[in-house]
Amino acid sequence: MNETVIRPSEGLKHVRYEIRGRLARRAHELERQGYEIISLNIGNPRAFGLRTPETMRLAMIENLPEAEGYCHQKGIFPAREAVVMQQQARGVTGVTAEEVFIGNGVSELIDLTLRALLNEGDEVLVPSPDYPLWTAAVTLNRGRAVHYPCRPENGFVPDPEELARLITPRTRALVVINPNNPTGAVYPRAVLESLARLAEVHGLVVFSDEIYDQMTYEDARFVPMATLVHGTLCCTMSGLSKVYRACGYRVGWAVFSGRTHPAAEYLAALELLSSLRLCSNVMAQWAVQTALGGHQSVRELIAPGGRLYESRAAILAATRASRYLSLVAPGGAMYAFPGIRREVLPQFDDQQFALELLEQKHVLVAPGVSFNVPYRNHFRITNLPDAATLREVFVRIEDLLASYAAERPARGSDSSRVVSGTFR
């Protein structure tokens, strides 16, 4: 009998999500062999002992009888109304519960909002580095991701003039990730205002990914994009996963503001797609009102002495002390995006480094190329572990980089372990 080879869709040819890719699978293999792996590739608070506030768990338990059936395709009213109240408190006007869509995490909403918008070949401006789901979702929905650079030498903040030169008649939308994943950059108000004006002039939909909105450090100040965008459609996305340490609840929201009336057909299309998937997780939606209206415990985590603050401080200290590393201090989120000094290690390759760090030092990081950048000398880590763990991580990183430096004349452009992005 002939075996028919089942091949994947051609539409997946250019879709990547290396954060959970081959390196993560290899880490699981090593764990099954008995090795203890420090996994810094994913921002998963529960994996590092950070719990969801108890009040949110109680809210779900108390409303469990109300969670046994389908709800409205946009989500339950108390959750949507709580999101409206949060937006109003931030200075966003003209939003009602009708402009709020609850999804199974922001990830689902990214897919749905792009699917409702894009036609074949439409372009979406996406930051580089980016959270790679944005690029993947544009590609999966027949669009073309056009990456606007957020350069290390500019603190990973975009240059609006450079971005403006990338706009074409096919450009439909602008993605802003602030505070940024993977870099931790928090964009200044003046830059956000310039991006808002560009979007308004060209009639672009602004997708503002603000899942880390309350995670900022020291003098960094988060400015909601919806307070600046008035002359075009703005979609603000956030959820429970990060600030409220509830990744597994899978609850996110998309709020539409600005010029919503001319977007009526688009919003109706989005509601159609929401209806086709029936509704999002009903039980976890009952935690939204309690989360947004209750005590914001994240403030203790990001203040001096708090877990995230002190872990970030450990990363800053370790990179400052390193001969090999450089770092733009993250102003927000739960990540850092260190770079390797090219003058010290000119042949450094981020994928090879990530593989050898895992195999030799049992630390899992995400290579910078995973985030759609043209350079190969960065990697991302999360600052969720405690400070002591992160100090140990950087001891191991420094040791591996020192071995590279010692072998430098012999290494040349050695790529025996990585060929065309495939591990051997």
Please explain how this structure is put together.
The chain has about 425 residues and is α/β, with parallel strands linked by helices. The longest helix is centred in the last third of the chain and has 20 residues. It has 15 helices and 16 strands. Helix content is about 35%, strand content about 15%. The C terminus is likely disordered.
Q: Which features does this protein show?
A:
alpha/beta; single chain; 3-stranded antiparallel beta sheet; globular
Please outline what is shown here.
Helices cover 36% and strands 15% of the residues. It is of the alpha/beta class and 424 residues long. Helix 4 (105-117) crosses helix 8 and helix 12 runs parallel beside helix 14.
Give the assembly state of these chains: single chain
Rg (CA only): 22 Å
The largest sheet has its strands arranged as 2-8-7-6-5-3-4
CATH superfamily of the largest domain: Type I PLP-dependent aspartate aminotransferase-like (Major domain)
Number of domains: 2
Average per-residue pLDDT, rounded, comes to 93
